């Protein structure tokens, strides 16, 4: 077994130990060593050391107020707070649920001396059931997760305001703090609470926030929900939420897929606002442009081509946020920068980039069939009753 920080198999108080070996160095060789996390965000003190207590290699905290090793790892990777008590795991899906799962951390050894070992997170193993229950166990590549997290940080400005601020607060704690402490844990909880507050599509409150953030940031297409039968029986509010989201996804799935394909075909995979076309790369999906709804699907349930327009991810965000406005007059379509926001954009590069998407929409960016073009009544309805639109 590779070097792993894991909860001791026996019940008790849920102590954590170090087991395994790597590169000829075993856990026993690291007795009385402290540990440093080696992360893409710099090296972080753990304030945790390996000691012999009662004949067992236990990890102990050397400074008061510092979370246990597995909670530090969770906060680093934007994972919900884990627990140590076997009796409190949810025994259901989703596996990663705040205060409902156990986390072990497989690490690689970067360097060591007589008193300190530098370790790099390799695999996060989460489980919501017994250690030998593969159905309720999930392995996550730690370095891939850190890369995904950094991508979300870079897109924080396109997230709903409260979510974006929470994400940036977590980023600050992870980058600036020398020890990943309770402040980073609280930052993760704030992200989770913000997602629940905005009602992120498919997000189960308390679950892993990263997939939902990727959806909101335009980095992913959706969240795969577990079947309702696999929801924790002792958490009825989670089961109800999963059942509701599952029914909605099942009901919408076929028509939405047809809508997406029809809009992509009508616009020939080209953004109507800026003209960017998704590349046709063999073996890969044509990502980069979205079939956007003019009238929100959640309010109007209109999966018809006339209620759609193909947009790159930047312009999709700007359209949904009413930063860029779609206009129809005299049979022609155009895009304009919302005057309410124009004065707030002080960055000239941002202003220039948005400016490239404004003006008349050329005919070759619109569907050939007039019936497939944005419905004027839908555009009018979209801005109806909104001041200064």
Brief write-up:
By secondary structure, the protein is of the alpha+beta class.
Note the topology:
Layout (H helix, E strand, L loop, with lengths): L3 E4 L8 E4 L1 E2 L2 E2 L7 E6 L2 E12 L2 E6 L7 H8 L25 E11 L3 E12 L9 E5 H13 L6 H16 L5 H17 L11 H7 L19 H31 L22 E5 L3 H4 L7 E5 H8 L3 E6 L2 E6 L1 H4 L5 H8 L3 E2 L15 H8 L6
Parallel strand pairs: 5-9
Antiparallel strand pairs: 1-2, 1-8, 3-4, 5-6, 6-7, 8-9, 9-10, 11-12, 13-14, 14-15
Helix pairs in contact: 1-4, 3-4
Q: Helix content range of the residues, please?
A: 25-40%
Question: Taking all residues together, what is the mean pLDDT?
Answer: 89
Biggest sheet layout: 8 strands, mixed
- Give the amount of beta strand, in percent: 15-25%
Radius of gyration: 25 Å
Q: How many structural domains in the coordinates?
A: 2
Question: Total strand count, please?
Answer: 15
Shape: elongated
Number of helices: 11
Q: Which stretches are low in confidence, meaning pLDDT under 50 for 5 or more residues running?
A: none
Structural class, please?
Answer: alpha+beta
Terminal Cα separation, in Å? 62 Å
Topology pattern, helix = H, strand = E: EEEEEEEHEEEHHHHHEHEHEEHHEH
């Amino acid at each position: 077994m590779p070097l792993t920080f894991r909860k001791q198999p026996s019940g008790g108080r849920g102590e954590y130990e170090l087991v395994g070996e790597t590169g000829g160095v075993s856990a026993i060789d690291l007795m009385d060593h402290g540990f440093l996390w080696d992360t893409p965000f710099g090296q972080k003190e753990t304030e945790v050391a390996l000691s012999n207590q009662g004949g067992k290699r236990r990890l102990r905290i050397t400074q008061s107020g510092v979370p246990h090793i597995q909670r530090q790892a969770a906060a680093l990777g934007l994972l919900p707070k884990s627990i140590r008590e076997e009796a409190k795991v949810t025994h259901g899906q989703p596996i990663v649920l705040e205060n409902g799962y156990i986390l072990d951390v497989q690490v690689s050894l970067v360097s060591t001396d007589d008193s300190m070992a530098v370790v790099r997170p390799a695999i996060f193993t989460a489980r919501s059931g017994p250690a030998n229950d593969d159905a309720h166990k999930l392995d996550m590549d730690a370095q891939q997760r850190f890369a995904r997290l950094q991508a979300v940080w870079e897109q924080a400005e396109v997230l709903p305001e409260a979510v974006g601020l929470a994400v940036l607060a977590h980023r600050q704690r992870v980058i600036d703090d020398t020890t990943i402490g309770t402040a980073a844990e609280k930052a993760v909880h704030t992200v989770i609470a913000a997602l629940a507050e905005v009602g992120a599509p498919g997000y189960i409150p308390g679950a892993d926030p990263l997939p939902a953030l990727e959806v909101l940031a335009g980095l992913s297409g959706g969240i795969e929900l577990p079947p309702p039968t696999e929801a924790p029986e002792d958490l009825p509010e989670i089961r109800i939420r999963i059942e509701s989201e599952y029914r909605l996804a099942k009901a919408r799935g076929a028509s939405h897929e047809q809508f997406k394909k029809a809009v992509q075909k009508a616009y020939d995979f080209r953004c109507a606002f800026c003209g960017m076309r998704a590349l046709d790369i063999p073996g890969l999906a044509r990502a980069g442009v979205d079939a956007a709804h003019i009238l929100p699907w959640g309010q109007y349930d209109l999966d018809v081509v006339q209620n759609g327009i193909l947009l790159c991810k930047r312009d999709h965000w700007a359209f949904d946020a009413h930063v860029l406005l779609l206009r129809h007059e005299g049979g022609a379509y155009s895009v304009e920068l919302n005057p309410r926001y124009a004065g707030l954009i002080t960055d000239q590069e941002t202003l220039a980039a948005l400016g490239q998407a404004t003006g008349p929409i050329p005919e070759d960016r619109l569907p050939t069939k007039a019936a497939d073009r944005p419905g004027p009544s839908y555009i009018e309805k979209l801005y109806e009753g909104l001041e200064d639109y």
